[in-house]
Each structure stands twice: as structure tokens, then as C-alpha cells.
Amino acid sequence: MAHSAIVGFGVYLPKYRIKISDIARHWQQDPVGLLASLGVEEKSVPGLDEDSFTFAFEAAQLALETSGIPSSQISAIFVGSESHPYAVKPTSGMLVSALKLDPFSHAADLEFACKAGTAGLQIVDSFIRSGQVKFGLALGTDTAQGKPGDALEYTAAAGAAAFLLGPADHKDALCRVERSLSYTTDTPDFWRAADEGYPSHAGRFTGEPGYFAHVRETLRAVVERWKIELSELDHVVFHMPNAKFPMRIAKEFGITKQQMSVGFIVPTIGNTYSACSLIGLVSVLEKARKDQRILVVSYGSGAGCDAILMTMQKNGKALPVDAREHSYLKYDEYLEHSGALAA
Fold first, then answer.
1. Is the bond leading into 158 cis (omega within 30 degrees of zero)?
2. pTM of this prediction?
């Protein structure tokens, strides 16, 4: 069966940031202690006129531009998010129209907490492998919610990542998707009912047996089923709810800081939920070298993991300077916790 490959990618982050220390001071908590426990210095904040659809559009538009593939040739799009703008009206359908994709497109919105974006990547990969489509888009996009005063407020961020996949033998194929697997259980560590504005969580229970148990089992399956050694991988990207969790699981499995460093983006943007591990992957794709291998392991509360193994077909390519500025990977506007722009 033929492989698929990433032929284009894009990212979008809102230009606004807020420092974790400012949130802590507002709630009269210790900013030094919070920074030490989370390892996150600041997070992205959406503008008043932004939502997960506008994020997805910008990221997907950039993926199209970097690929050079006409949008009319794309006939699949899957959008993962915890914060679709409408309860009943597909984000994916709006994107088919806004991006001018082939109207005869397979399109669907996905939800699986923070792994919905990687689930979309798996689906598009399968469509291409089967020969049903030639090109497809997979996106993770979120305006992550955290109830004021809740622990989530310190890390819940906003952003999107998009990947255009095509056949691995395409002349512009950048990174081949080798294989993937998923691990799923019914673990109630994080939830939000349809009529609730903010999610609830089980406090420390979200760590173990939530994040750690699932990532641990997934990594064991990667080693046993795929017959690879984690030490042989060049880049590893985990879901990053904070800076501590992924580093702890990496240390447990002998994964080095060098293997983690390129995709470790959470300290300066926070947890962008469905886009989190995918934005880390974007960072790797910009810098990785030909033949290097990449492992992405996402995690979604509720709960499950996706593991995706990839190999670079050529040297990575950085997003154009003007595109990086447009995507607000460079920024200088900070908010105070009241919402006012900082001086």
C-alpha cells in the first residue's frame, strides 16, 4: 500500500500573549511557584474577532501556499477541535468554501479533546493510502477554554496547525507518514457537557492514570509492535498540557532533551489543545534534515493517544519570513489579566 506524505504545512497563532505571572498576581497566587510547577511562561490569547474557524483558515491557507497545490485539487478535509464555533454547523464545510476546495470533498469535524487534530491526520493518511483521494487537509484548531480562577486558565491557549497530505512519490513530498496506532479508554479525567461554557477536570487525576498511563502504554506499543528503539528517533513530539508532563514521560523512556527540543513549544505559547502537538510538529518540519525520523504522540482526555511515525524525504523548509510574521510566530503585544493591552 502506498504511503502518504506531508507536502505543505501552516500554523497560526493570535498575536496577543499574556504572562502566567500576571494571571497569578490577579488571583493573588505565587507566580514563582506556578512557573516552577507548570514550566509555562506565557500563553497565546485570541483577539475579539478570532475563533477556531479563523485560526484554521489562516493555517490552511499557509499550508496551501507552501505546497503550491491548487486548492481545487484537494478533496478531503478533517478539522479537529474542542471549540468549533457552532454546535450544529460544520467548521470543515465552511473551510471547503472559504479555501475554494473541491466541493466534492470528504469533510467532517472531529472531537477527541487534544488529539482530534492527529486523528484527522490519520484519516487523511488512510484516504490517500487507499487511493480514494490524492490530496487532503488535516487541521487541529482551538480557542481553549479555562474557567476564570481554574488551574486551566494558566495554560489554556489558542492556535491552529494545518497539514496538506498527498502521495509520498509527489515531487514536493517533504515528510513521509510511515505508520500510526491509537490507544483508547473510557477515562473521565476531563469533560464539558454541551450546555456548559467551561470544562471540568479531575484535578491530579488528569495526570495519572490520565496523561501518563496513556502515553506510557502508547510508547510501549510503538516499541513492541513497530520493532524500533526510541533512542533511534531524531525528533519526538508529545502533547504538551504543560512543560512538566512531557519531560517526565520522556525521562521515563530515556528520550533525551535533544530529541524533544525542536518541537517543545509549550513554554512560550501554552497548551493549544487540538493544535498542540501539531504546532510542535510544524516546528520540527521547519528544521529536520533528510532521512530523520519523527514520532508524534498526542493525548486527548477522555481518553486516548495517537502515535504517528514519519520520515523526512528532504531537508525541512522554514516558513517564509512574511508568512511567519503573518502567522504571529513573532509578536509584541501583551495583555494584562483584565484584558487591556499592556504598555
1. no
2. 0.94
